[in-house]
Amino acid sequence: METLAISERYARVMGSACSIHVAAPAVEGAAAEAAIAAGFAWLRAAEACLTRFDAASELSALNRAGGTWFAASAMLYAVTEAALAAAHETAGLFDPTLLERLEMLGYAADYRTSVQDGTTARDVPAPPATQLWRGVELDAATQRIRLPEGVRLDFGGIGKGWAADAVLEHCFAAFPNVLIVLGGDMRLRGGPLPGGLWSIAVADPVQTPPDGQEAQLAVLTLGAGGVATSGATEHQWQQGTLTRHHLLDPRTGFPAHIWLGPATAGDVPAMATVLAETAARAEVAAKVALLRGTPDTLPGTAGILLRGDGRAQASTHLTEYLHTHGGGQLWWLR
Question: pTM for this structure?
Answer without folding.
Answer: 0.93
